[in-house]
Design a protein that fits this description.
This protein is of the alpha+beta class. It is globular, with a radius of gyration of 25 Å. The strands form 6 sheets. A 4-stranded antiparallel sheet has the order 3-2-1-24, with no helix packed on it. Strands 4-5-6-7 form a 4-stranded antiparallel sheet.
């Protein structure tokens, strides 16, 4: 990676008639120079850190540079951080809390000397969250900012979302995969007892938290991995602890519904979890008890489909929960084939507000027709789901993509393959599944998978 020590002055395009654009651009160049000089004198930053911060500002305010001949970096410079920072769409400005009144003079009270903190925070929010640990190492104030979690709240206000995939496989403890940087990251070891480690578990990503549900020697337990402080801790238990429930998340809230209690009784109760408050709230009961069901958010409502009302009776109806009216509505024949006791809960995912399901018996992806309450086949799965009746396979939404995570046994051993397909790119036969990543020495069975968008 090559860096220059000096920033060359921005040249204003003389043909531009936008005087405001010229003024802002000239001011931008002045601020960058002041920031660099201030950091050089007082902070002892490395060149990499200087350029990281400057790139953040240039990326955020890139629209100011239209029509301007800029020669800030030499053409042979390659800075990987810029590649994924530039926003792809225009956005409205959200003012964050001001941390200091900076008038162009270097100040220890400012995140970036020469800039108001609301502008600096707005810029930092657009950085890849893979860079946040590095930013936390710049100085004490950046460390406090990153570890406060405030940038994630600001990202949510600005509509900035990056999706990471969290996996636990047969030969691999929990790891996170960053699709943008194509990087796998191992999570710290979960400080649970041996019973929790060996028992079946369920997982759910909500806000900046990964919740893992299971059983310890003392009973039901929930362990929480916090993305902000990168550590595990216990999460408060539900008002009525359970397993084999349907669940889904939206922003900072999640809903769990149905399941079985410690005595094996099938439940029709539901609860809402708020990740920012760290508490559970009881919701009205569903119309029918069910376990081994699946949940999802669609059209700003929460749905539950599939499952069993007992050890032998399969359910074909679905239920819709309206968060505004706090009422449940039964939808007849929403999952007409149901799922048997030996099958996994329905493998469902919502992409672009459309519901898809992976059929465990036919190895097909189906799309739900909301108007006619029917399912239509759209393509074939890239892996076999019928080998283990849908178990050991993950079918998730990852932004605008459908994600299928499954094991593969080849001549070089067992690997986990992450396949994806964008429904908007075409239907069956028009485009094949792409491979997002291959994880070697992970086994061939997916125990848990969750996608965190923040």
């Amino acid at each position: 990676m090559v860096f220059r020590y000096s920033f060359e002055k921005l040249e204003i395009n003389k043909d531009s008639s936008d005087s405001k654009l010229e003024l802002m651009s000239a001011t931008q160049g002045c601020v960058l120079s002041q920031s660099l000089c201030s950091f050089d004198r007082s902070c002892g930053f490395s060149q990499k850190n200087w350029y990281l911060l400057i790139c953040l500002l240039l990326a955020k305010h890139g629209s100011w540079l239209n029509g301007i001949r800029k020669n800030i970096f030499d053409k042979d410079i390659c800075i990987s951080t810029l590649e994924h920072i530039v926003p792809k769409r225009s956005r409205s400005r959200v003012r964050a809390r001001p941390g200091g009144d900076c008038d162009g003079q270097a100040s220890s009270d400012c995140l970036l000397p020469g800039l108001h903190d609301d502008m600096a925070l707005d810029s930092l929010a657009w950085a890849c969250r893979s860079d946040y640990p590095s930013l936390a190492c710049l100085n004490r104030r950046f460390n406090l900012l990153i570890n406060s979690g405030y940038l994630y709240k600001l990202r949510r206000q600005l509509g900035i979302v990056e999706h990471w995939i969290y996996l636990a496989c047969s030969l691999m403890p929990w790891e996170a995969f960053d699709p943008i940087r194509q990087r796998w990251m191992r999570l710290p070891r979960m400080p649970c007892d041996e019973c929790f480690s060996c028992a079946d578990k369920e997982s759910l990503a909500v806000g900046t938290q990964l919740l893992v549900f299971g059983r310890e020697l003392s009973g039901f337990a929930i362990w929480m991995y916090n993305l902000v402080n990168r550590s595990w801790s216990r999460c408060p238990l539900m008002n009525l602890p359970r397993c084999l429930f349907g669940s889904s998340s939206q922003a900072e809230i999640a809903i769990v519904a149905g399941g079985s209690d410690k005595n094996g009784q099938v439940l029709k109760s539901a609860e809402l979890y708020n990740s920012e408050l760290g508490c559970w709230e009881a919701l009205p009961d569903m119309n029918s008890p069910r376990k081994m069901c699946s949940g999802f958010f669609m059209d700003r409502k929460f749905y539950v489909i599939g499952g069993m009302s007992s050890n032998t009776d399969s359910l074909t109806c679905g239920e819709e929960y309206n968060l505004e009216t706090r009422t449940w509505r039964r939808i007849r024949n929403m999952y007409p084939h149901g799922n048997r006791a030996t099958q996994s809960p329905p493998l469902v995912a919502v992409v672009n507000n459309q519901l898809y399901a992976a059929d465990q018996s036919t190895n097909q992806v189906k799309k739900y027709d909301k108007v006619n309450n029917v399912w239509n086949v759209v393509r074939t799965l890239p892996v076999r789901a019928d080998n283990y009746n849908g178990w050991g396979l993950a079918f998730k939404a990852c932004g605008d993509k459908l994600l299928v995570v499954g094991g593969h046994r080849g001549s070089e051993g067992e690997v986990i393959v992450l396949h994806f397909w964008r429904p908007e790119d075409g239907l069956a036969g028009e485009i094949d599944w792409d491979v997002l990543s291959v994880k070697e020495r992970a086994g061939a069975f997916v125990y848990n998978c969750a996608v965190m968008g923040c």
